[in-house]
Amino acid sequence: MAESAGLPKILIADDNVQNVELLEAYLAEVECEILTAFNGEETLEMVDEHHPDLILLDIMMPKLSGFEVCKKIRKNPETRETQILMVTALNEPSDFERGVQAGTDDFLTKPVNKVELLCRVRSLLRVRHLRTQLERTLAYLAEVETASRSSS
């Protein structure tokens, strides 16, 4: 997909091509740029290169699990604010606990319900947008404060 100015970027990270295609089809209703990765290492490379706003992250992937990917994203100051939605066939309470400990923002269990996916994606993108606006506002206020101190 071509680089789309101003549109949110969603990275779909899943080693199953059919799952990726299904999520892409569901996300057709959301104005966004869709990126894909098929293992944990590729996911981290895509995050570093493209800085997605939201990651739909499968847990059971080759090279690095979704849990490991999530932890690495959270440890990096440049990526720690990325919204992460773990999409998984795992549904034991211990799996959810591990996801929370790794730093996920939300969960979705497979098979994915389209309406639930779209609600969560829109909600997480809204959170990301608001956080970005807040950061910009705080940076602007800090500049204004610095300028007013130096002109006094």
Commentary on this structure:
It is a single chain. With 152 residues, the protein is α/β, with parallel strands linked by helices. The chain has one domain (9-151): Rossmann fold (3-Layer(aba) Sandwich). It contains five helices and five strands, in the order E-H-E-H-E-H-E-H-E-H. It has helices spanning 17-26, 40-50, 66-75, 93-102, 114-151, and strands at 9-13, 33-37, 54-58, 83-88, 106-109. A five-stranded parallel β-sheet has the order 2-1-3-4-5, sandwiched between helices. Helix 1 links the parallel strand 1 (9-13) and strand 2 (33-37). Helix 3 (66-75) packs parallel to helix 4. The longest helix has 38 residues, at 114-151. The model has no long low-confidence stretch (mean pLDDT 93).
Q: Compute the CA-based radius of gyration.
A: 17 Å
Largest sheet: 5 strands, parallel
The CATH architecture name reads: 3-Layer(aba) Sandwich
Q: What share of the residues does DSSP label as strand, in percent? A: 15-25%
Order of helices and strands: EHEHEHEHEH
Structural topology:
Blueprint: E1 9-13, H1 17-26, E2 33-37, H2 40-50, E3 54-58, H3 66-75, E4 83-88, H4 93-102, E5 106-109, H5 114-151
Parallel strand pairs: 1-2, 1-3, 3-4, 4-5
Helix pairs in contact: 2-3, 3-4
